[in-house]
Write a structure and sequence with these properties.
three-stranded mixed sheet; two-stranded antiparallel sheet; 5 strands
């Protein structure tokens, strides 16, 4: 009998354990390189106070030092981020791993030191006149960082003094980032009681969340309520955390409002490599499209014999129909993804199988696993890893396809310099949601009965509901929360009200009841490194749909153009990427309207299947 759950990943190719001597060797190399950075920084520190009026000798010395620091930073970063990734991977699988916690804690001082020693270069490149930047970039050692430098300079008006930037960085490790670590540890350790038949069983949050992929309504609702009960005991703690995270960011907006007012959406939009006009266009078109998206949600409910979906249905699989096997062993699920990827190009299918053969996928079910799924990569080996909890549903296959899309994106860029591999979150979702659509359409084309078609089309409609209703709900809540937080910290009951209002606004009468504790149980609101960890998914879904919709017209050139687009994600803005590769303007609402309109036949197809199967 084939194993239903997914495999455990092998991290030993990087380190054997948190106490592996190679970690200390890497950190020693990291510290040695930073000592050289400190020496080079002297030339930068000497001119930062008068960066616009340097003498000729100062200018030459500073530019050369800046180039050296850039190169040293790329050498050093892999020795810091490799053990950091390793610790995070271990804690994702086992939130109670004390050795991994110790390693994670020990890395804080290294991160602080690295951030402080990179500040002089950042300050120099932001403060000097344009002609100095041009001269700096006119060298093969640093020319690859051109987009990164120019993109960062777009926010130079927000820059604080070197001393203040260093202070912010140092305090952040035990300030804003500490609140995030608190939430992560709480999520890894939290237990809840779920029904198993007529008895209750104690499980971790991730395992309980996996039960919301059950085809049984009672099981899904019970798991959702169990998770909310567990989190509700920590309402005050989580309210303090989310208020602190938002409060820190809002205070930084005030401090950085020197030349002009800095809005709390400026940073996440900039980090996503998109303009605020593009963000507004995407959200507005999603808002215009609520009628279609609600039809999709109502159709999903109808397939379960209900008038409305519940918040516990957000990850529900297709309902079980006669002669259907709802459980798909991992190996079969992997084959489905590999074959679908291979239809674009054989190398994409080979990549999926390589990920499994190398044991770079974590898919086990465990009581101490953190909820969610992600793709990460190790900086030294430049190899990706996929994390998820695989329990055999069609939704799990979709998640696997999604995360392997991220991994393929990493793989396509693995030979690029680090300065060209940092793409915004909005573009990060391109390959992942493209992969989902590939798999769904491949399965639809193979379907031999309405029952099978429904199971596959279910995933498509679930994606529409997720990206065009659920993601905007998160955005609506977070935007309204930040606006309210500018006035005062919010109480748990006020956070509940804001959350419920957002659910009701977007879902309307397609929803049975709002999830007013979603602000607690959604990890994304507690990520300290990134705020508004939501709209990039909407952008990425629609952008990838636009790419997918052009696949047939591009013919045999598609794969080369697709990988070319992925490789460019870290060296141009989203707007420039779309103009270059798709010849479209992302700030125009008509582009997004056309993309959404192409989804309506998928909704109609599912509604037709419901008519055929359920009358």
């Amino acid at each position: 009998m084939k194993e239903l759950s997914g495999p455990s990943w092998d991290l030993s190719q990087e380190y054997t354990s948190p106490s592996d001597s190679q970690i200390q060797t890497d950190l020693g190399e990291f510290s040695s390189i930073l000592d050289r950075v400190a020496e080079e920084n002297e030339a930068l520190l000497a001119v930062i106070g008068h960066a616009e009026n340097m003498s000729g000798d100062e200018r030459n010395a500073a530019i050369e030092a800046a180039r050296n620091v850039h190169n040293l930073s790329e050498q050093a970063s892999k020795f810091l981020w490799n053990p950091s990734t390793f610790a995070n991977c271990l804690l994702s699988v086992d939130g109670n791993d004390d050795d991994a916690k110790t390693l994670e804690a020990s890395l804080i001082e290294y991160r602080v030191k690295y951030s402080e020693l990179m500040q002089p270069l950042s300050q120099f490149l932001n403060l000097v006149p344009d002609d100095v930047v041009e001269e700096y970039l006119n060298d093969d050692r640093v020319s690859a960082s051109e987009f990164q430098v120019r993109h960062t300079r777009a926010r130079r008006h927000e820059l604080l003094s070197l001393e203040e930037e260093n202070l912010v960085s140092a305090l952040g490790q035990n300030g804003i980032h500490a609140w995030s670590r608190l939430y992560d540890r709480l999520a890894g350790q939290l237990r809840c009681h779920v029904l198993e038949g007529n008895d209750q069983r104690e499980v971790g949050i991730a395992e309980a969340a996996s039960l919301m992929q059950s085809t049984d309504d009672r099981t899904r609702e019970d798991a959702w309520r169990a998770i909310n009960r567990a989190w509700s005991d920590h309402e005050e703690t989580c309210a303090a955390s989310v208020n602190a995270l938002a409060g820190w960011r809002l205070e930084m907006c005030k401090r950085r409002s020197n030349g002009k007012v800095v809005h709390f959406l400026d940073s996440p939009a900039h980090a996503s490599h998109i303009k605020r006009e593009t963000l507004d266009a995407v959200i507005d078109v999603a808002r215009e499209s609520r009628h279609m998206s609600r039809r999709a949600a109502t159709a999903l409910a109808r397939a379960y014999g209900k008038k409305r979906i519940g918040p516990w249905d957000q990850r529900a699989p297709a309902p079980e129909l006669p002669n259907q096997d709802a459980s798909i062993p991992f190996d079969e699920g992997l084959d489905i993804v590999a074959n679908a990827y291979g239809q674009v190009d054989a190398s994409m299918g080979e990549f999926v199988r390589m990920m499994a053969d190398n044991q770079w996928i974590e898919g086990t079910v465990g009581s101490n696993k953190r909820p969610g799924a992600y793709c990460t990569s190790f900086a030294k080996s430049r190899t990706p890893r996929v994390y998820m909890t695989y329990s055999g549903s069609m939704t799990d296959i979709t998640i696997l396809a999604h995360e392997l899309g991220h991994a393929f994106h990493h793989w396509a860029m693995r030979d690029l310099p680090d300065s060209q591999k940092s793409y915004g979150m909005s573009l990060a979702e391109t390959a992942s949601t493209f992969g989902e659509t590939l798999v769904r359409d491949a399965l639809l084309n193979k379907s031999e009965s309405p029952e099978t078609e429904l199971a596959v089309a279910w995933e498509e409609l679930s994606a529409i509901v997720s990206f065009l209703l659920n993601i905007p709900t998160r955005f609506e809540f977070e935007k309204n929360f930040y606006e309210a937080r500018e006035r005062k910290p919010l109480l748990p009951r006020e956070l509940r009200t804001l959350m419920a209002d957002a659910w009701n606004y977007w879902y309307g009468d397609s929803l049975s009841e709002p999830d007013d504790l979603f602000w607690i149980n959604k990890l994304h609101f507690y990520i300290s490194g990134t705020s508004f960890y939501n709209f990039p998914y909407l952008f990425g879904y629609l952008f990838s749909q636009s790419v997918y919709q052009r696949r047939e017209n591009m013919g045999e050139d598609f794969f080369d153009r697709y990988t070319g687009l992925l490789r460019d994600t870290g060296r141009v803005s989203a707007e420039e990427l779309a103009k270059t590769h798709l010849e479209v303007d992302l700030t125009q609402r008509d582009f997004w309207r056309q993309t959404v309109a192409a989804l309506e036949p998928r909704v109609e197809h599912f509604e037709g299947l419901c008519d055929q199967l359920f009358g």
